[in-house]
């Protein structure tokens, strides 16, 4: 809601990719250069292997007034700056899927040509989509392993929670709703309290109670080590993709 739909111009090769933009009231085109001519803030949301060709196409139209934001995974600021005119204001953004329900987790890094004003503008605009933090570029691949891929880890855990309840006799649809609300509530408490998760976990446990018995089983299954390994594996894969 921070930008009127009519002020947004989206470009894509096919009409299929533009239908959702039109339905939202945005203007559309098949000409990337038209976007540069009419817009100051330009988001590049292409597949990584497509981006170099797009940058080559738009390079002649990029001026000092433009702010270029890349959402392409694995394409570094160094590469972006090399393929655009010297001094271009470039930022690299990595969102995650829950941005579509305005509960995303996003990080961005700025190139050498982008200043505090450009960073503040991007953060302000994206705050309506969830949490948005500026980080060193080296954190972006870690963010991919933690949050980009991490959404899937949470879905797997939610599925397991619900299936445990189904095993004990609760209907599946009810179990899934309660599992989702449990995750939502726990996350909200982490964000709003600012407490370390270990402290909040300890607050739930009572001596000899249900929670500590359950946590013992999770520890025997090496849940924490397995999740840490998952974040490491996804981060390493993101690093490898950036080298390809």
UniProtKB/TrEMBL annotation:
Lineage: Eukaryota, Metazoa, Chordata, Craniata, Vertebrata
Annotated TM spans: none
Pathway info: Amino-acid biosynthesis; L-proline biosynthesis; L-proline from L-glutamate 5-semialdehyde: step 1/1
Primary location: cytoplasm
Binding site for NADP(+): 45-48
Residues that bind NADPH: 32
EC number(s) stated in the UniProt entry for this protein: 1.5.1.2
Enzyme class: oxidoreductase
GO cellular component terms listed in the entry, alphabetical order: cytoplasm
Domain Pyrroline-5-carboxylate reductase catalytic N-terminal: 8-74
Subcellular compartments: Cytoplasm
GO terms of molecular function: pyrroline-5-carboxylate reductase activity
Similarity comment text for this entry: Belongs to the pyrroline-5-carboxylate reductase family.
Keywords linked to the UniProt accession: Amino-acid biosynthesis, Cytoplasm, NADP, Oxidoreductase, Proline biosynthesis
Gene Ontology biological-process entries: L-proline biosynthetic process
Function: Oxidoreductase that catalyzes the last step in proline biosynthesis, which corresponds to the reduction of pyrroline-5-carboxylate (P5C) to L-proline using NAD(P)H. Proline is synthesized from either glutamate or ornithine; both are converted to P5C, and then to proline via pyrroline-5-carboxylate reductases (PYCRs). PYCR3 is exclusively linked to the biosynthesis of proline from ornithine.
Gene that encodes the chain: Pycr3
Domain of life: Eukaryota
Name this protein carries in UniProt: Pyrroline-5-carboxylate reductase
Subunit text: Homodecamer; composed of 5 homodimers.
Domain Pyrroline-5-carboxylate reductase dimerisation: 137-239
């Amino acid at each position: 809601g921070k930008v009127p739909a009519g002020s947004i111009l989206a470009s894509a090769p096919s009409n299929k990719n533009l239908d959702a933009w039109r339905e939202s009231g945005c203007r559309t085109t098949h000409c990337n250069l038209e976007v540069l001519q009419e817009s100051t803030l330009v988001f590049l949301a292409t597949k990584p292997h497509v981006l170099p060709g797009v940058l080559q196409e738009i390079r002649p139209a990029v001026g000092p007034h433009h702010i270029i934001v890349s959402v392409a995974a694995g394409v570094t600021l160094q590469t972006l700056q090399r393929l655009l005119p010297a001094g271009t204001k470039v930022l690299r953004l990595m969102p995650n899927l829950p941005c579509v329900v305005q509960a995303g987790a996003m990080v961005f890094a700025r190139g050498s040509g982008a200043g505090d004003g450009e960073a503040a503008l991007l953060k302000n605009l994206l705050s309506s989509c969830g949490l948005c933090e500026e980080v060193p570029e080296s954190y972006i691949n870690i963010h991919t392993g933690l949050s980009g891929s991490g959404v899937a880890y949470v879905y797997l855990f939610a599925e397991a929670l619900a299936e445990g309840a189904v095993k004990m006799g609760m209907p599946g649809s009810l179990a899934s709703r309660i599992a989702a609300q449990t995750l939502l509530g726990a996350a909200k408490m982490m964000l709003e309290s600012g407490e370390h998760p270990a402290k909040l976990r300890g607050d739930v446990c009572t001596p000899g109670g249900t929670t500590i018995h359950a946590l013992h089983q999770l520890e025997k299954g090496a849940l924490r080590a397995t999740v840490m390994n998952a974040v490491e594996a996804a981060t390493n894969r993101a690093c490898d993709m950036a080298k390809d």
